Amino acid sequence: MNLSTSSGTQTTVTPSGSHFSGTQNDTCITVTVSGQPSNPFCLTVRTPWKLLPNPSVSSTDSDTTYGYSTVIGYDIHDNLDTLIAQDILWNEVVGTAQNLNGSNWATCCGPINTSGGSTGPLRDLLQPPAVNSSPTPPSPTPTFNNPPSGATMYRQASQSIRVGNGFSPGPGVLVQSDNLTYWIDHGSHENVVIPPRPPQ
Amino acid sequence: MRLGKYLTIVIAVGFLWSGRPCLGTALPPLHISELVSQSDVVVVANVSEIKPVGLASVSFGGIPLSAQRYRVQTVALYRLVGSCPEQFSVEFVLPNSSTGYRSVKPGPRMLFLKRSGATYNPTNPYYPDFPALRFEPIDFHGKDATELVFAELGAVIASPDASLEDKWEVLSRSYAIPEDNKVFLSDLLVGLWDTGAPDLRRRKQAELISRNDISELADVCDALLAGTLSTAQKTVLLYAIGQHLKNEKAVPGLTRLLQFRDLRVRVASAQALWHIASASSIGPLAEALNDESSDVRYYAIRGLADATGELQWGPSVAEYQEHEAKYRQHWLEWASQNSAPHTHN
User: Fold this and answer.
1) Rounded to whole angstroms, how far apart are CA atoms B77 and B86?
2) B313 CB near a chain A CB, below 8 Å?
3) Helix, coil or strand: residue A168
4) What are phi and psi of A14, to 5 degrees?
5) Rounded to an integer, what distance in angstroms lies between the CA atom of residue B28 and that of residue A125?
6) Sequence-separated (6 or more) residues with CB below 8 Å from residue A172
7) Rounded-to-integer distance, Cα A163 and Cα A90, Å
8) Which of A185, B215, B329, B345 has its C-alpha lying 20 to 30 A from B257's C-alpha?
9) Concatenated DSSP letters of B84-143
């Protein structure tokens, strides 16, 4: 802990360590003035742990430009498996995409850019290449079926999601790794791996 | 060998030239009060066909993207914020690559607009419009603008004239409507059983449970125990129960679910009992200490700690993984000494 000042009527306490609570209210602060200690002020030190799928904000819809748009939603839970309800920033690192099963989706139509976001809830948008991309359109042509029924992958790339920084990819607490996967009529996160243990 | 090195350099240059190799797009959260306050005009209008009117460029995360400019003609039906002519056009830009920016949709829509001279543009390119009804609601005047937006979205949910697509769109945005909004809650209940779309009905039930209205919980419990739900229906209902339900009156139903053979059902039930953390949840939580699932036992321990105020006996996940026996033993002894009260049947 760092104190902004050790005299006067007010001081700001800034935690500088990286220890997170093992039980609730296990981190206590006691102020001693002229040898007289105060009652302890106890708090719980939380940190992001994992993403939990939020199906209420996840959907696949028809899209005139891309054929379909899939939104995959998540909540963020902390080291006590409690929902972090506040908006916090997140970023993703995405590997090089691969064409799969004879498609050209990863190479036909240029990159699709992204930027960091904020949670509350976290929502990741997956869209295939634009149907009318020129000079080379995607093959096969992405489409929309309700409900989605595609069973063949056409594009895939590794993805890691971190929270605590939304301005550049890379920094932050890793909360999920997966494979961004694009099917003929929907997108998905496959091979999802969450950290088995929260930070301690 | 030299050719291989040359090809590598060409590929690398092409890769850098094409931009960042990113495929997913982060969507910003929707805050309706901010959207309203940032808009010069919020209007329900009939939106006609969308027409491309030229090329444009937009900066996205500092990267310039080529884009298409579009224009739609609209006829104002009624205004929620600001003023606008009866007929006016809205212009918006959609990048040619995926960004999450959305097109204005045709039909009756609630538009959030900024005015620049005689031109109107979406206030937020991610959320240019929402579904709306053609007719001005009763009790429309004198209400706060944000409340009016909530009421309009609720009216779409309740209306037999609104399309299923519009209702789903509203439900996908419902996280931005406060949990205690009574108008939206009552609109969710309207026509719940009239819908011919079972997925939509289950989604509405999940929304009600998320808002701690348990009027549909018995039906949901019956369906879960009977195993008659689709995977998607079950997933959305268990999410609502496990992550949002905090109504103490749900304890009897949750106790039924806690005894079911399906692990996902038991986990969701234990999570809800933890979140309720009332005296009436102590009995079923104590029984869940003997569940075969480590996850169920964890939520039982957390629930007992919260319900009794013994927070030091409610461990973090990592602490539980290392010392489960210590915490479980504590609560087993506590339960035997305190003959956990069962205030439900």
Assistant:
1) 8
2) yes
3) coil
4) -115, 115
5) 10
6) A89, A90, A91, A162, A163, A164, A165
7) 4
8) B329
9) --SEEEEEEEEESS--S--PPPSEEEEEEEEEETTEEEESSTT-SEEE--SSPPTT-TTS
Distance, CA of B216 to CA of B204 (rounded, Å): 10
Q: Which residue has the tokens 């220890």?
A: A19
Residue type, A78: D
Tokens representing B233 are 């229906």
The model's pTM is 0.89
Q: What are phi and psi of A49, to 5 degrees?
A: -120, -60
Amino acid present at B18? S
User: A132: helix, coil or strand?
Assistant: coil
Residue B96 dihedral angles phi and psi, to the nearest 5°: -75, -15
Query: What is the ipTM, given to two decimal places?
Result: 0.89
Residue B46's region, left for phi above 0, alpha for psi from -120 to 50, else beta, is beta
A10 Cβ neighbours under 8 A, 6+ residues apart: none
The span from the CA of A154 to the CA of A188, in Å, is 12
**Tokens found for residue A142:** 């992405």
- The two three-digit tokens of residue B230, written as one number: 């689709």
Min Cα–Cα distance to chain A from B343, Å = 27
Q: Which residue from B57, B76, B73 is spatially nearest to B65, judged by alpha carbons?
A: B57
For tokens 């090809």, the residue is: B7
B chain contacts of residue A26, beta-carbon cutoff 8 Å: 312
Are B228 and B259 in contact by the 8 Å Cβ rule? The answer is no
Q: Which residues of B touch A190 (CB under 8 A)?
A: none
For residue range B52-82, list pLDDT tens digits in order.
Answer: 999 999 988 778 888 999 999 999 999 999 9
CB B167 within 8 Å of CB B200: yes
Cα gap B245→B256, rounded to integer Å: 15
User: Chain A contacts of B96, Cβ < 8 Å?
Assistant: 130
The DSSP annotation for B30-99 comes to P-HHHHHHT-SEEEEEEEEEEEEEEEEEEEETTEEEEEEEEEEEEEEEEEEES---SEEEEEEEEESS--
Nearest to A97 among B23, B103, B239 (CB): B23
Among A69, A114, A124, A155, the residue to mutate for chain B (most B Cβ within 10 A): A114
State pLDDT tens for residues A66-113: 999 999 999 999 999 999 988 888 988 888 899 999 999 999 987 656
Helical pair B198-210 and B217-226, crossing angle rounded to 10 deg = 120
